[in-house]
């Protein structure tokens, strides 16, 4: 690969990275896993003046739950770390369903969840998952940290609200209200293909009643689509075939797919509904037996 | 006493590939691994537009970048009469565009610099002023009234037609159709696909000013053809050109044509008197080098009510891109398309073919297809299934009913080929048994009742491999024979060279096995070299499954020449006359006293130390082999699938392949070829799409859009074999490299359409993406992958 000329820095701390970002004045890109950034530099779609490699910063590779159930994923937690975590399925079922579907096994060994969120590709799977889970991103800048809801984080294709001198240091999933269940389904032509359609669903329930629900859609709009409107229909209800149907139809309506070589607009909408139905129908017995 | 042939790595030995020893340890020697002293690097600036007039090119900013040595444009090439070059199909192709660009990705300028980064930067600094022209991306547009003429550079080219061609018996076919009970029809598009070898194309040109000799390290499957072409294009004497094709990272036909990058790197080296390396990037490879397929086929089949095929009509509209650069036998304009229907006993057929220019990258033959046979057999097997469905006849039965019978060889095909051998029904029966045909049909019925859609697809075909015989097959007038040269050293070890060029086929392993079979010299004692035109004997190279049929035969023949001389030496050593000795593998012995004999190794020693009076010393020879006919392997591919009615996604349940490629030299290598071919067949049927928008932008210019299958989704394959030796090949072998790629796709497509049976859907164009299958299923109509075209 022959990218354009760039400078390279490998800070040892978050503070140092933030300082470098500030000095570069918007001309730097952060290198974590590099699985999207490096190919873009190869094709010269991206030509940053500086790469700030955060891989030498200690203490960012974690993913763990706080005592209250809040789940934190550090900026250097690789996809494969999540995929191989046997406890993830019980704590974070939607994430566990998505982890093995991220790109291909080679990408998963290097790429990071936080990096994927920052890349803000409408085809990114994690953004939908985090949006369904009501997650947020913690960014650190020269004046300290702030938390940004994933739903507000992305502003368009490959665009987000991070300031040029801010580093995304972790992603956070709030503690569930009751029991958490969920799933992720993705239509791809081949392992590692971008999603034709991806659907993330998360529900939380107490007894048999849904207490919180979220749906995120991948690849069916100019950016990740939060179909929260559809999901909230379920809150306060028992899950059943009827409301599953209605949620699926509404999610399909909320999606904004375009016809392309991966499929027609109508087909993609149909797939959104089909996947919502499939995920929720599979969860139906779980919610029923809790009581 | 008798040598065990398998133990010495002879015919039938599952010998590990000797070349893998270096490949899997990262020790191969590819063009890009070669670094010469003082070497410069070249990068190509490609056109962003598909059809545009070049108003001006400003290279001043590029020239000003430190480290830039030379910027070449079409204008500079034109001053040396090098702006255009001949193609392998008697057309011309722009080396660097002068008047206008004719496809997106066309070569516009080249930068030679101290390193590839600088070269790339400098390419970005070249300013080209284009005036966009209307774009043509398919045959319908190419043939429309008032369509812009793409090749206005050619005198007497007043439309976009490359050729009109026909073969067969039109009147006889018309008569047969008039007498038919039923006529079935089919129209389809075989989409553009790309060979996608792991290694892209590249070259290092090294013009030595001291000797005036030009050495070019080049990714080519056919180094000798390239040498001849370079001699013609660059007007250099052929003996002062040395083409070296080192290890190749795959070819699949991509590395047969002559590319502008090769030519410009040669000119740059001559101008700068320094070595110049050009290595194409992946995007450049995907958008500009020789593609495969992109052809519209339609036809009719005339049948009797009982399923007997009476005649076939076919028409093809092929999209050749901006330049007709197909690498194919010059006598046949649409490759060997007319080998279609060769495994069936059909009295008469007629084929018309039209080729057109479009604003797309040139090519049209490459990708493991043996000169358009892939498209021919795909159409054949889809047509047979449609006919079976029209008649309500079982798809296995209609094939069995029409197969050429085992005792009916040699058999003249409806288009005039002569097939030589086969056991078609036996292959089919083995395949049906292996897949559990009858059981599956029952399962399918049961599943239907539960709303599940199962399907089974069959594809059977024989194809002509191993061009050619020199009467009928040539490229640029060079006859398609091949050669081998064998030198046996005095200790009985040997070096073999051929005019073929391995690119993953395992010639270094297989050829040594043929020598072992013919001479009894252990295969491990034979080193095989190919690809250097200064040392290898002349040959046409490796493509179209021709190496074993042609070069492999030459290896047998040269070994036999060596054996004949060794026999004379043996008689001398045993002090008897030649008539008194017999040959067994690796040894001559006295007929009257079998325990007295000499080994081939002893004969080799004597050839350099103790030859009979009057005999030239040494034990080496060469052979040129001009095959009497093509070889005709047979393949039967059967797949079962399940279609998800709610998504259109289809999963492969089982794949069975029964291949009869005659005698197998190394069964493991043959099986590898078949598995690779099936993986490619699956990919073509399932996912691969390289298409163009209305502006001629290539959609599929990277490996995120153009998909290569991985081990994760590729199904498993169950392989079976039948051996019907080729009657004219010295060891009974037939070509096999392309069989599964040729025959495989129809098995997958037929299976999916079988699952949709009853919906009225006759065809879905490849790739059978989920949305296409879902549309067909829910709306009950055919799904075309491209706009329909009618020119004939």
Class inferred from helices and paired strands of chain A: alpha+beta
In terms of per-residue confidence, which ranges of chain B show pLDDT below 50 for 5 or more consecutive residues? Answer: 788-792
Order of neighbouring strands in the sheet with most strands of chain A:
4-5-10-6-7
Assembly state (oligomeric): heterodimer
User: What is the architecture of the largest domain in chain A at the second tier of CATH?
Assistant: 2-Layer Sandwich
Count of folded domains of chain B: 3
CATH topology of the largest domain in chain A: Uridine Diphospho-n-acetylenolpyruvylglucosamine Reductase, domain 3
Description:
Chain A folds into three domains: 7-56, Uridine Diphospho-n-acetylenolpyruvylglucosamine Reductase, domain 2, CATH 3.30.43.10; 63-173, Uridine Diphospho-n-acetylenolpyruvylglucosamine Reductase, domain 3; 179-289, CO dehydrogenase flavoprotein, C-terminal domain (Enolase-like, domain 1). Helices cover 35% and strands 25% of the residues of chain A. Chain A has helices at residues 14-24, 37-42, 79-83, 88-91, 93-98, 105-110, 113-119, 125-133, 150-153, 228-232, 241-254, 265-289, and strands spanning 7-9, 28-31, 50-53, 63-65, 71-74, 136-141, 144-149, 154-156, 159-160, 167-173, 179-187, 197-206, 209-218, 225-226. In chain A, strands 4-5-10-6-7 form a five-stranded antiparallel beta sheet. A four-stranded antiparallel beta sheet of chain A has the order 11-12-13-14. In chain A, helix 11 (241-254) runs antiparallel to helix 12. The mean pLDDT of chain A is 95. In chain B, helix 10 (373-391) packs parallel to helix 18, helix 15 crosses helix 16 and helix 17 (667-686) crosses helix 18. The interface between A and B is medium-sized, with 24 and 34 residues.
């Amino acid at each position: 690969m022959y990218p354009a000329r760039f400078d390279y820095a490998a800070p040892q701390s978050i503070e140092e990275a933030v300082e470098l970002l500030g000095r570069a004045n918007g001309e730097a890109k952060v290198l974590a896993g590099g699985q999207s950034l490096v190919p873009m530099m190869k094709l010269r779609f991206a030509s940053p003046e500086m790469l700030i490699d955060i891989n030498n910063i200690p203490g960012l590779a974690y993913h763990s739950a706080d005592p209250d159930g809040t789940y934190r994923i550090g900026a250097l937690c690789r996809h494969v770390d999540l995929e191989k975590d046997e406890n993830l399925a019980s704590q974070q079922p939607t994430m566990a369903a998505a982890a093995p579907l991220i790109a291909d096994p080679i990408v998963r060994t290097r790429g990071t969840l936080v990096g994927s969120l920052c890349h803000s590709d409408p085809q990114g799977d994690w953004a939908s998952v985090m949006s369904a889970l009501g997650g947020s991103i913690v960014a650190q800048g020269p004046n300290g940290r702030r938390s940004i809801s994933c739903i507000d984080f992305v502003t368009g294709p490959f665009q987000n609200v991070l300031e040029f001198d801010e580093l995304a240091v972790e992603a956070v999933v709030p503690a569930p209200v009751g029991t958490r269940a969920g799933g992720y389904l993705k239509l791809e032509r081949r392992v590692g293909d971008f999603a034709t359609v991806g659907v993330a669903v998360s529900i939380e329930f107490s007894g048999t009643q849904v207490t919180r629900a979220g749906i995120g859609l991948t690849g069916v709009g100019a950016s990740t689509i939060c179909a929260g409107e559809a999901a909230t229909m379920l809150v306060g209800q028992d899950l059943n075939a009827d409301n599953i149907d209605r949620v699926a139809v509404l999610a399909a309506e909320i999606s904004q797919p375009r016809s392309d070589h991966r499929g027609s607009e109508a087909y993609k909408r149909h797939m959104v509904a089909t996947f919502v139905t499939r995920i929720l129908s599979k969860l139906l017995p779980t919610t029923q037996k809790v009581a | 006493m008798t040598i065990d042939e398998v133990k010495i790595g002879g015919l039938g030995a599952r010998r590990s590939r000797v070349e893998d020893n270096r490949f899997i340890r990262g020790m191969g020697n590819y063009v890009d691994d070669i670094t010469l002293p003082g070497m410069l690097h070249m990068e190509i600036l490609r056109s962003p537009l598909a059809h545009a007039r070049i108003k001006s090119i400003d290279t001043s900013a590029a020239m000003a970048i430190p480290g830039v040595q030379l910027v070449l444009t079409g204008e500079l090439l034109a001053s040396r009469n090098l702006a255009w070059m001949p193609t392998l199909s008697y057309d011309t192709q722009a080396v660097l565009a002068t008047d206008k660009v004719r496809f997106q990705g066309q070569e516009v300028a080249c930068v030679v610099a101290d390193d590839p980064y600088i070269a790339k930067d400098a390419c970005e600094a070249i300013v080209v002023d284009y005036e966009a022209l209307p774009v043509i991306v398919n045959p319908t547009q190419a043939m429309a009234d008032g369509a812009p003429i793409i090749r206005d550079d050619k005198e007497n080219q007043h439309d976009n037609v490359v050729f009109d061609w026909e073969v067969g018996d039109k009147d006889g076919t018309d008569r047969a159709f008039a007498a038919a009970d039923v006529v079935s029809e089919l129209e389809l598009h075989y989409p553009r696909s790309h060979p996608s070898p792991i290694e892209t194309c590249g070259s290092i040109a090294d013009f030595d000013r001291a000797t005036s000799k030009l050495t070019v390290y080049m990714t080519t499957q056919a180094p000798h053809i390239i040498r001849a072409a370079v001699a013609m294009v660059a007007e250099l004497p052929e003996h002062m050109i040395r083409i070296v094709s080192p290890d190749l990272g795959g070819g699949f036909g991509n590395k047969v044509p002559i590319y502008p990058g090769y030519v410009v790197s040669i000119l740059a080296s001559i101008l700068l008197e320094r070595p110049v390396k050009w290595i194409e990037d992946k995007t450049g490879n995907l958008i500009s080098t020789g593609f495969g397929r992109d052809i519209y086929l339609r036809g009719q089949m005339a049948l009797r009510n009982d399923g007997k095929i009476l005649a076939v009509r076919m028409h093809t509209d092929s999209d050749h891109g901006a330049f007709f650069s197909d690498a194919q036998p010059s006598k046949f304009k649409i490759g060997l398309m007319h080998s279609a229907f060769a495994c069936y006993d059909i009295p008469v057929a007629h084929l018309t073919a039209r080729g057109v220019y479009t604003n797309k990258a040139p090519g049209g033959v490459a990708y493991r297809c043996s000169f358009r046979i892939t498209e021919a057999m795909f159409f054949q097997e889809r047509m047979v299934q449609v006919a079976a469905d029209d008649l309500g006849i079982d798809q296995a039965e209609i094939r069995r009913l029409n197969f050429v019978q085992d005792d009916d060889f040699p058999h003249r095909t409806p288009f005039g080929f002569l097939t030589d051998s086969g056991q078609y029904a036996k292959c089919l029966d083995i395949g049906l048994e292996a897949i559990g045909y009858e059981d599956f049909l029952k399962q399918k019925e049961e599943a239907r009742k539960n709303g599940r859609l199962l399907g089974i697809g069959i594809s059977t075909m024989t194809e002509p491999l191993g061009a050619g015989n020199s009467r009928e097959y040539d490229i640029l007038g060079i006859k398609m024979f091949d050669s081998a040269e064998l030198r046996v050293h005095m200790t009985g070890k040997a070096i073999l060279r051929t005019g073929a060029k391995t690119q993953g086929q395992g010639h270094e392993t297989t050829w040594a096995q043929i020598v072992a079979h013919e001479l009894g010299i252990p295969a491990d004692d034979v080193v095989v070299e190919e690809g250097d035109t200064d040392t290898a004997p002349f040959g046409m190279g490796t493509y179209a499954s021709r190496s074993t049929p042609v070069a492999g035969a030459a290896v047998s023949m040269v070994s036999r020449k060596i054996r004949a001389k060794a026999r004379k030496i043996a008689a001398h050593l045993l002090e008897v006359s030649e008539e008194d000795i017999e040959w067994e593998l690796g040894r001559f012995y006295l007929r009257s006293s079998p325990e007295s004999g000499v080994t081939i190794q002893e004969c080799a020693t004597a050839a350099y130390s103790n030859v009979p009076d009057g005999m030239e010393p040494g034990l080496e020879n060469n052979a040129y082999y001009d095959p009497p006919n093509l070889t005709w392997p047979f393949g039967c591919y059967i797949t079962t699938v399940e279609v998800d009615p709610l998504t259109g996604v289809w999963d492969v349940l089982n794949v069975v392949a029964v291949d009869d490629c005659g005698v197998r030299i190394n069964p493991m290598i043959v099986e590898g070829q078949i598995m690779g071919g099936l993986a490619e067949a699956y990919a073509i049927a399932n996912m691969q799409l390289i298409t163009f928008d209305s502006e001629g932008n290539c959609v599929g210019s990277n490996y995120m859009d153009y998909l290569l299958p991985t081990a994760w989704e590729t199904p498993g394959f169950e392989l079976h074999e039948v051996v019907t030796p080729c009657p004219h090949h010295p060891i009974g072998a037939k070509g096999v490299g392309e069989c599964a790629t040729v025959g495989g796709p129809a098995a997958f497509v037929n299976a999916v359409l079988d699952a949709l049976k009853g919906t009225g859907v006759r065809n879905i164009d490849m790739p059978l993406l989920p949305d296409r299958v879902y549309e067909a299923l829910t709306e009950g109509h055919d799904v075309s992958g491209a706009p329909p075209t009618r020119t004939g």
